[in-house]
Amino acid sequence: MLQYTIDTLKHAGINRCIVITGYKAQAIREFLGNGSRFGIEVQYSHNPEYVKGNAFSLRTARYLLKDENIFLLIMSDHIVHKAIVEAALKNLCNAPLLCVDREPRYPPQIKDATKVLVNSENFIVDIGKNLSSWNAIDTGVFLLNEKIFQAIDYEVEREVYPLELNRCVKRMISTGTQLWACDVSGCFWLDIDTQADLTFAEKVFKGVLDA
User: Fold this and answer.
1) Which of 34, 51, 73, 103 is deepest in the core (most CB within 10 A)?
2) What Å distances lie between residue 81 and 33, 86, 122, 156, 206, CA to CA?
3) CB neighbours (10 Å) of residue 210?
4) CA 162, 166, 170, 172 torsion: positive or negative?
5) CA 129 vs CA 24, 110, 172: distances in Å
């Protein structure tokens, strides 16, 4: 899965990526190295306290992003077609944004999914796994800026863990930052949380992703 994600980024025109490690960090470093064999530069940020959540992990990479006004964030447990990444990159002017799917087709896309509520102006007004009112699914691909780190800092001060990105995104929205919904309905993606999800993906994604 890691190699597929790296290849997706490369084929979408990205030449540098930051891999945030936690569990089995050394194994990941040994596999990816500096990225030269994949044709992309790989840098690392490590979160030894990875049990504190993925937003806490993202915070560890802040120093590597200090010169970036906007950055792409992709969840490593998601398999996404390069068309989703390309759609995000084509909409830099609309960042910050989240790629959403309004027409999920596969069980792993819906089961335990992070749901979003998009308003009539195409901005996300709520996000979470337990929303009672929603009209799209989070695909795990974001374009973000410094505002997300401000939201993470606020939540870190509250010391309520695990600190997941969804909570920080909600904080960002609630303090006035608009998050645009980039509609990628019809593009292939899967959220891989379990061995069953992986088995399902192996059955269906090869032909779709190679298309």
Assistant:
1) 73
2) 23, 9, 22, 33, 11
3) 7
4) positive
5) 27, 10, 17
At 210, the pLDDT band (50, 70, 90 cuts) reads low
State whether residue 211 is helix, strand or coil: coil
- Structural domains in the chain, CATH included, are 2-209 (3.90.550.10)
Contact yes or no for 119/125 (Cβ under 8 A): yes
Mean pLDDT of 9-24: 95
d(CA 188, CA 101): 10
Token look-up 């596969």 returns 106
Q: How far apart are CA 75 and CA 197, in angstroms?
A: 15
Tokens (6 digits) for 96 = 């910050």
Which tokens is 156 given? 């870190």
Kindly state the average pLDDT of the residues 123-149: 96
Across-strand partners of 100?
138, 183
Cis (ω within 30 of 0) for the bond into 96? Answer: yes
**Higher pLDDT among residues 168 and 77, named by residue:** 168
Residue matched to tokens 């999920």: 104
User: What is the C-alpha separation between 184 and 85, in angstroms, rounded?
Assistant: 10
Instruction: Provide the strand spans (E) within 76-135.
Output: 78-80, 97-101, 115-118, 124-128
